[in-house]
Amino acid sequence: MGEQSQPIAYVLRGSTTGFVCGTRVNRLGATAFGRFVRVTVAEGGETVLGLIYGIRIDDDPLVRQLVLAEDVPESTVNDQRVNRMVPVEISVLNVGYRDGRGLHHSLPPRPPLSLHLVFMCDDAEVIAFTRELSFFRLVLNAPDVPSEDLLAAALGVAADVRESDARMQFLIDAGRELARLLNHDPRRLENILRLIKPEEVSHE
Amino acid sequence: MNKAEAENLDEWFPRGPLVPDEATKPARGETPIRLGVVVGGSLSRGLAVRMELGTPIEEMAVGRYVVIRGRDKRFFGMITDISLESSNPQIQVSPPDFSDPFMAKVYSGTATYGVLHVAPMLVIEEDGTARPVKTVPSHFTDVFAATADDVNAVFGQEDEVHFHVGSPIELEDTRVNLNLSRLVERSVGIFGKSGTGKSYLTRILISGIIEKNAAVNLIFDMHNDYGWEVINELGRRDKGLKQLFDDRVLIFTLDRESSERRNVRVDGEIRLSLREIEPEDLAMLRLTLDLSDSMVDTAYALHRHWGDEWIIKALSATPDEIEDLLERLNVHTGSLSALRRRLERFRRFPFIHSDRPDDSLNRLIAAIEAEKSVVLEFGRYGNALEAYILVANYLTRRIHDMYVEKMERSLGDRSMQPPQLLITIEEAHKFLDPQIARQTIFGTIAREMRKYNVTLLVVDQRPSAIDEEVMSQIGTRITALLDNERDIQAVLTGISGASSLREVLARLETKQQAIIMGHAVPMPVVIRPRDWGLDFYRALGYVEGEALKEKADEARRDLGGEGGPRRL
Questions:
Q1: Helix A147-160, helix A164-181: angle, nearest 10
Q2: Which of A6, A105, B246, B469 is most buried, judging by how many CB atoms fall within 10 Å of its CB?
Q3: Cα(B236)–Cα(A73) distance, rounded to whole angstroms?
Q4: Best mutation site among A155, A173, A193 for testing chain B: the one with the most B CBs within 10 Å?
Q5: Radius of gyration, alpha carbons of chain B
Q6: How confident is the prediction along chain B (568 residues), in pLDDT tens digits per residue?
Q7: Is the Cβ–Cβ distance between B215 and B420 less than 8 Å?
Q8: Which of B289, B320, B348 is the last residue of a domain?
Q9: Is residue B137 part of a domain?
Q10: What's CA A197's distance to the chain center, in Å?
Q11: Is residue B113 part of a domain?
Q12: How far is A155 from chain B (nearest CA, A)?
């Protein structure tokens, strides 16, 4: 809970379809590909919900020099990793928002602004948001996003935060929603289904 | 719909809510099972219903009823076909791994799914009145399996004209009640290939007709299936009509010896005089006896020449008399001698004699006039088709004459009208073959329909061999399994929505299933007929004490008291 109530990053740049936020390496913590994050755009206004689809670590001039240096002490390497000149960039795909009327599984009306705080969604938020699966469409249609892997990872997260007896049904429902959305593309469907398939499936 | 039609329907479907009242409603409230939604189709081709996720396709069956609950109306339909579809043809080319339960669960009902083809049969309006279907429900209307209440609402309750004949398949608690007065006002056909239970169905139907006084019956009982008792497939003795209705049914026989051997209480024996046989009776036998046109013409010439005694004289004529005859009547030698050879066959039957006619036939006709149903047993002669046809034709001709006369007399006084008469004939295609149907009395009856209060109940395994015009006059058709394409075609001719019933008809069980369609039912229905047993006897008012005794006897027999079931 403590981890989820702490901001993980600040928004660097954004649009209504997604945003990029920057953070320090030691704040990365629970961030991972396919996890849900939220940004409150305005107090009392919308909270944008998104999926992490990319974590990018850029180089800086000092790192470039260190790469060429010999026998760099480990303390220097660690220092460089933590106290970088440029932030770690986390790319987020917007998949919904929450306002006074409730949860919406569509693009937010306004993008988050620079330096808005980004938080990880807690389990309850993930469960509430994934109770409806219409955000699949936004993921599958997003350009320049590894949509199949992203959706599979997000579904893995959403399944894990559920009670163990509800996981299987959630994944089956998700699979069926995908089968409806991807009926024009059976190969893509099969690919995602393979990725989300639980290891052990009851044979009832 | 014109006014007359509307009134007709009102008579059949009483106005007012169709939902059964509280007293008759089954105690347990049934929740309808949702099967899917309408996704397409048309009135003529039937509706396509995409099956609901999780509805097991293997549990569906053609012939079952569904209810489509539209916004204001309920549509009644029958499942006529079931197909497997997939949202993308690519799936058929490289099927997903269905051995994985997860994959199987995801794909079934989404990318691959079942489609029910449903023929709309009836529409129930907002106010509860049922009408023939003239439109279809809109897209994505919910489709449910019909519940017992739904079906009961359509087929009504058993009353003085409605008789419980069986239950729709998969709805054992539901009763299909036939409107018998509608049934008998037009001819009825009971079809099915051999061994599918035609006689069984006929027996149930006739029991109902006698019980509800819907008509007087004359049954030409080819194989002794109706009168006193019949040994069923399990070797048990089933009661015949006489045992159930006692003095309302009389048994006449052509073969007293056979009847006595079977311990049948016979009310009269029928003997036929050669003097009573007319050339028209021979014309009926044209196919059975292989008579040519010129032989039939010769018969008419002999009848004109000799009158009633034409057969006796023809058979006993000396060569000189024949010579003389050939000259005077201008008939062909070959035809005459061939005709004589055919007539000679009649002498083989002990019930045909050359004496003056006795009153046995009059007694049978008097029984019908007295509104008693008559079973005419053929004993051992049931297998001799010429005997069956000859007797049936001869008797029917006499009775028909009587009815025509009575009906004409009753034109001035309705109270004189004779009771509705239903004549049951087996192997009906031998009587109603296209080559002879136009000239014979059975063809006439089938065509004249209710004008003279005489209708036919034809029992047959080859409906395709029956004259088309006659078939078109058969109001209600009750059909057990038929597998010959032409027979199926013949039975369905003239039935609305017939093409969709084809699959249902071809897939009936070999026993204990029949589809009823036409005049006497609001919509076609596949039924499992009632069991012919103690419950049925009791429902017909059979005395309880005797029923109990019968049960005791049966138990004793089952225990081996009499050395197992006996056969005739």
A1: 150
A2: A105
A3: 103
A4: A193
A5: 28
A6: 444 444 444 444 434 333 433 333 333 456 788 899 999 998 888 899 999 877 777 888 887 889 999 888 889 888 888 999 888 888 888 888 888 888 888 888 888 889 999 988 888 887 777 788 888 899 999 999 888 778 777 877 778 888 888 888 777 778 888 888 888 888 899 998 888 888 888 888 888 888 888 888 888 888 888 888 787 777 777 888 888 788 888 888 888 888 888 888 888 888 888 888 888 887 777 777 788 888 888 888 888 888 887 888 777 777 777 777 777 777 777 887 888 888 888 888 888 877 777 777 888 888 888 888 888 888 887 777 778 888 888 888 888 888 888 888 887 777 777 888 888 888 888 777 777 777 777 777 877 756 788 888 989 888 888 888 888 888 889 998 888 888 888 888 877 767 778 878 878 888 888 888 888 888 888 888 888 877 778 777 776 565 566 666 776 676 665 544 444 4
A7: yes
A8: B348
A9: yes
A10: 20
A11: yes
A12: 15
Q: Are A175 and B105 a contacting pair at CB < 8 A?
A: yes
Distance CA A199, CA B542 (A): 67
Q: Does any CB of chain A come closer than 8 Å to the CB of residue B110?
A: yes
Total tally of structural domains belonging to chain B: 2
Under an 8 A CB cutoff, do A201 and B110 touch?
A: no
Which residues in chain A are contacts of B39 at CB distance < 8 A?
none
* Residue where a domain stops, chosen among B316, B348, B380: B348
Taking one residue from A and the other from B, the number of pairs with CB-CB distance under 8 angstroms is 47
Q: Is B340 contained in some domain?
A: yes
The full DSSP string for B245-280 is: HGGGEEEEES-HHHHHHTT---SEE--EEGGG--HH
Calpha distance B223→B188 (Å, rounded): 20
Contact B102 A175 (CB under 8 A): yes
- What are the backbone angles phi and psi of residue B494, rounded to the nearest 5°? 85, 0
**Among partner residues B88, B101, B107, which is closest to A201 by beta-carbon distance?**
B101
Do residues B463 and B471 touch, judged by C-beta distance below 8 A? yes
- Which residues on neighbouring strands pair with residue A48, listed in sequence order? A39, A97
What are the CB-based long-range contacts (under 8 Å, 24+) for B155-160?
B155/B521, B155/B522, B155/B525, B156/B14, B157/B20, B157/B24, B160/B212
Cβ–Cβ < 8 Å for B114, B60: yes
Which residues are CB-contacts of B348 (< 8 A; sequence separation ≥ 6)?
Answer: none
Contact criterion met (CB < 8 Å) for A190 and B109: no
B39 interfaces chain A, CB cutoff of 8 Å: no
| Separation in Å, CA of B110 to nearest CA in chain A | 6
Burial class (CB in 10 A: 0-12, 13-18, 19+), B196: buried
| Optimal mutation site among B102, B103, B107, B108, interface A, most CBs of chain A within 10 A | B102
Which candidate in A133, A173, A189, A195 is best for mutational testing of the B interface (most B CBs within 10 A)?
A189
Q: Please report residues of A whose CB lies closer than 8 A to that of B110.
A: 176, 179-180, 183
Domain interval for residue B134: 31-146
